Amino acid sequence: MVLAAFYFLAFLGIVISPQKVGDELDEATNARMRRYAEEMQERMAQLLLEIEALEKQQSSMHMGALLLSAMQTWQFWASLGFILLLIWLLFWLRKKFEVFDDSSDEESSSSDEDLEEPALNDESNTSISIAESIQRQQVNLTNYCRLVEEMVRGFCRACDWVFKDTFSPVLQTPIGVGSAFEGWSPREGDTVYRCLIPMTAPRGHSFHVEQNTKWNLPSKVSRIRVKLECTCWREQEFGNMLCFLHNPVEELRRNQEPSLLRTMCTRSYLDVRKVSSWFQQLAKLSWKSVPHSSSWLVKVLKTRRSCMLRLIDDTGSTVFVEMMFGVQQGDTDIFLSSDYSEAPVTPDTVWPQSCAVAEMKFFRNIAANAQQDSFHLGCMQLCARIALGSYFTSYMMKTVVMHLLNTIPLERWHRREFLQRMDDIMEYLCSCLRKKCLDHFWLGNEQMPEEFILPPDFQTSRPPNLFQHMAKDPDQYTQAHTDFHELQEQLMPSCRALRGTLSASPKP
To answer: Which Gene Ontology cellular component terms are annotated (predicted)?
Structure first.
């Protein structure tokens, strides 16, 4: 009976050989193999119990004879080998099932993670890249600003030497202005380094600022009237110069360079477009004598109200330099600049009032008095970067930050309170959005620091509203409201990424 069972199991083991178990088996096959192994294990246990019972029934005398007889037959060895084979098969199947289950769990968990990671990456990759670029760009700005200032100063010196015997405007020491020289930039790859070059009247000429009230422009604008001055009493000082007022026209035309009125003015007013063309010609003629010019490939870009240069070095890096020109209002920090106004069409004889020099001095004054770990520039740069392409311009965001820098103590702009300051900026912007009013920082500001020299009418003037178009146009207000909520959604992950970058980076 027992031997028959052994033979039957041996037959099953030979005919129904187990398949290879691997990751490619489906769930139904795995279930059948588990049931097969369990049945084999139960049958094995029953068989062992029957053998033990049979052995107990026989006496010790007969046991020795039976064992001797069994050992002499091949059936005994075949049965014993098959039992060992079954034991090994059960052990192998169990180990294989355990490995398969573990690998299935790992695959399912890893697939879940793979599904979650893209969502997390989509949310944070952009924010992390912005945070890293802000850290990287603040270092690059300082180096490039120093280089640009040195090159533009050399350009002005070369121009003075070339035109020293003419009656062109006299160029003064250039002043770096704009976001780059303030320590931040809304973009990383295409930052424009702007320099304002003050101009004074040449010998025998004088500049007179005339306020122009008939132009319907959003900011104060003026015209610069050019007048000829008598130089008869200064002949020794000016050398061989002939007085434009007291010498015949034919003699002046034959023996002296033309006056500024004839070269760069329209109806006695300094013409922005003519001055710009003159600057562009200067750049083409004089740039080779500028320090470091041999290391750059220079192209003068045609613009209407400034002189734009594109510089490319040996590595292919591109730097844009914009040289603007202006006339200082008395001894103040305010200039009449060639920079564009917000008007759709600005006449060539109109020079908008510019606070660019005062704004540069404001940020440098903040940097000089702030704590070492102050992160006000990081706040400014992050706001400007997020606002790109929205209703809120970089100048609007800068105005908000300047208002807060002027009211919140500087010691509260350190890294630890970075998120709180960003909340303050968005709350201030939201308040202005509700009121449809964002006041100009320099005009009508009663809390202006004493370090800045402004015209007398600045504090008494009513501040222009930078949101005036929004207040008049409901569609613009709706667009601004939508853009504000998008800014809030983009700002939170960017703030978290930037805070992590700040925590990982050493303090300056």
So the answer is: membrane
- What is the chain's alpha carbon radius of gyration, rounded to the nearest angstrom? 43
* Whole-number pLDDT of residue 100: 45
Q: Is the pLDDT of residue 247 over 80?
A: yes
Instruction: Report phi then psi at 249, rounded to 5.
Output: -60, -40
Q: Count Cα neighbours of 63 within 13 Å in the Cβ-side half-sphere.
A: 10
pLDDT average, residue stretch 13-35:
52
Distance in angstroms between the alpha carbons of the first and the last residue of the chain = 90
Specify the range with the lowest mean pLDDT, choosing from 118-127, 192-201, 324-333, 376-385.
118-127
- pLDDT tens track for 443-473: 888 888 888 999 888 878 888 999 999 989 9
CA distance 464 to 468: 8
Gap between the Cα atoms of 471 and 463, Å rounded: 15
State which CATH number among 1.10.1410.40, 2.60.120.260, 3.60.40.10, 3.30.1380.20 fits the domain covering 370-508. Answer: 1.10.1410.40
pTM of this prediction exceeds 0.90: no
The three-point CA angle 398-400-402 to 5° equals 70
pLDDT above 60: residue 208: yes
Q: How many alpha carbons lie under 13 Å from residue 218 in its C-beta half-sphere?
A: 14
Report which of 262, 133, 229 is spatially closest to residue 188, judged by C-alpha positions: 133
Rounded (10°) CA dihedral 399, 400, 405, 407: 110
Q: Are 265 and 226 in contact (CB under 8 A)?
A: yes
